[in-house]
Write a structure and sequence with these properties.
This protein is α+β, with helices and mostly antiparallel strands. The protein is built from 13 helices and ten strands. The longest helix is centred in the middle third of the chain and has 69 residues.
């Protein structure tokens, strides 16, 4: 059967193709300008994003040095190195997109100089051995604050303003190009519409409307339930095939109608069963949440919309109803307010939390406590919400702080001892060295204990660490070629708060006592040899005296005998 409808459509399409191609070519040129401006605007947007990251990095880069002055934790230097590396990477990324002689390059240079100044000041801070209460460290910290503020409010703010101004210009270019595109499309559309209306009117009157009316009447009859077979159209084209297909469909619908009722009944039964299972699961979940010893809460649009009994107790409320509708941020301690806002923004973007977060909160009664919590994005009443699980860790934190204070007391004692003291973990990393031992062997500088004390590249074969980590106290002596001294050593296991075991070694210089003991032993040996020699000589003298007496006796006897 010839495809007459298709041929007519091809004819009408051919008539409309020429102006369509002309319209497309004009649009292609115009949209090229649009896309060029859009690509540049996207590059500028990325630049603004990098500037935002740079702003955040400069806001945070002074914190590790400040924390080091407060806690003396050497790990803060690693955080500082990470932030300065991020700043250098962002400056390099922004510099790669700027012209060599532009004002933006000058501002980037000023930002780079500010970063280098912060690095130098921070390095001086991290060189301070006892940073807590250090006046020089505080002075350096003030300089870092001033330098960071100068960079963020000066060249960084100026660079951001320049980039945003360029972005506005690109947006205006895009809007102008889009306006031209709309005008071109409007004119072209009018032409296309006129041709389309003309072709459609002629084609529909000649070849479409009559068979379509017949098919419509047949489909209305089928919709009303008349599924009896009837004569189809005789047009010699696709409408005839469609009419035959409709009649065939009506017959199949009639045969499938009864089967469909059976399927609907079966599916309804299964859906009711599934709904009952879902209600049971929801009930079990609610019971589990209510019985949980941890606080479980849901906040939507910043307000608490659900909280279990454990959560109400945690926040100092008599029942969950007192907390529903309150602002969740009101319970956060002011010191953690900004951290909580940033955390909420990340969660709402779909980012996953890396793990438990320790946070300080204020209960309804004003009492301040510490919690460990984790939050995830969820949906509550068809709205995005945050599901949070938390538990009170105030006692654990207080215990940890108490252990830290006791450890600081012991370190103060060790620092005042004349004997050398150091601590080492099970990876042979030195955790502490007192001043007396540093005077003998110098600074540790990240070396393992066998490198620091013995100048070895591997674990010492005579090392008693395994016995110490098994819980035994070991006493032994060791001669150090490095210091030329002999030490009496006591190795004792020390259990850390985390449960792992470190070794504490006390080294006492016994060189003089060893030397005195050796000299005493040599004198005793000499005296013993003299004693033995003297005794032998006395015995020999006695033997000689007895022989002399015997000879004198024999001579006397010979004198007294009468002559023969």
């Amino acid at each position: 059967m010839p495809l007459k409808i298709r041929n007519k459509l091809l004819l009408g399409f051919s008539i409309m193709l020429a102006p369509l191609l002309l319209l497309l070519s004009i649009n292609y040129y115009n949209y090229g300008s649009v896309f060029k401006n859009i690509r540049r605007a996207e590059e500028i947007r990325k630049g603004i994003h990098h500037l935002s990251q740079l702003q955040l990095a400069f806001d945070m880069v002074i914190m590790p040095a400040n924390d080091y002055l407060i806690t003396a934790d050497a790990a803060e230097k690693k955080e500082f190195d990470r932030l300065t590396g991020e700043i250098d990477s962002l400056i390099a990324t922004l510099s790669a997109k700027k012209e060599a002689d532009s004002g933006e390059t000058r501002m980037l240079g000023e930002i780079r100089e500010g970063s280098e100044g912060i690095k130098k000041a921070a390095q001086e801070i991290f060189k301070i051995k006892k940073p807590i209460g250090s006046r020089s460290g505080a002075k350096l910290m003030e300089g870092m604050d001033v330098l960071s503020h100068r960079v963020t409010t000066g060249p960084l703010a100026g660079l951001r303003e320049t980039v945003e101004r360029e972005q506005e210009e690109r947006h205006r270019g895009v809007e102008a190009a889009m306006g031209r595109a709309w005008a071109i499309n409007a004119a072209g559309s009018l032409v296309m519409i006129a041709l389309g209306v003309l072709v459609t009117f002629l084609y529909s009157n000649l070849f479409l409307m009559r068979p379509m009316r017949a098919i419509r009447r047949r489909t209305e009859e089928i919709a009303k339930g008349d599924l009896r077979a009837k004569p189809g159209l005789k047009t010699g084209d696709e409408f005839e095939e469609l009419s035959d297909a409709i009649n065939s469909m009506a017959s199949e619908i009639d045969s499938l109608h009864a089967h469909l009722e059976e399927l609907v009944e079966e599916r309804t039964k299964k859906m009711n069963e599934a709904l009952k299972d879902a209600e049971d699961s929801a009930g079990r979940y609610k019971t589990l949440v209510e019985a949980s010893p941890d606080s479980v809460s849901v906040s939507s649009e910043g307000k608490i919309v659900f909280i279990n009994k454990a959560g109400a107790f945690l926040l100092g409320a008599n029942n969950p109803g007192e907390l529903v509708g309150k602002e969740a941020i009101d319970f956060v301690h002011p010191d953690y307010m900004e951290i909580e806002r940033e955390r909420t923004m990340r969660i709402m973007k779909g980012e996953r939390e890396p793990g438990l977060l320790e946070e300080r909160i204020r209960r309804m009664d004003g009492k301040e406590i510490y919690i460990d919590g984790i939050s995830v994005l969820t949906v509550y009443n068809d709205k995005p919400a945050i599901l949070s699980i938390a538990r009170d860790v105030t006692y654990r934190k207080e215990a940890r702080d108490a252990v830290r204070k006791e450890r600081d007391k012991f370190i103060t004692i060790f620092d005042a001892m004349e004997d050398g003291v150091y601590m080492v973990n099970q990876d042979y990393d030195i955790e502490y060295v007192n001043p007396a031992l540093k005077r003998e062997f110098g600074p540790v500088e990240g070396r393992k204990c066998y490198e620091y004390l013995h100048d070895r590249k591997e674990v010492c074969p005579f090392c008693p660490n395994k016995e110490v980590w098994a819980g035994r106290t070991v006493r032994w002596e060791w001669y150090s070629p490095k210091s030329g001294k002999t030490y009496g050593i006591t190795d004792t296991p020390v259990k850390n708060p985390g449960g792992n075991v470190s070794k504490m070694e006390i080294m006492r210089d016994v060189t003089d006592s060893k030397r005195s003991g050796k000299e005493l032993k040599e004198r005793l040996e000499e005296l013993e040899l003299f004693r033995k020699t003297t005794i032998k000589r006395e015995i020999r003298l006695r033997e000689l005296k007895e022989k002399v007496k015997a000879l004198e006796k024999k001579l006397e006897e010979k004198r007294t005998q009468p002559p023969q």
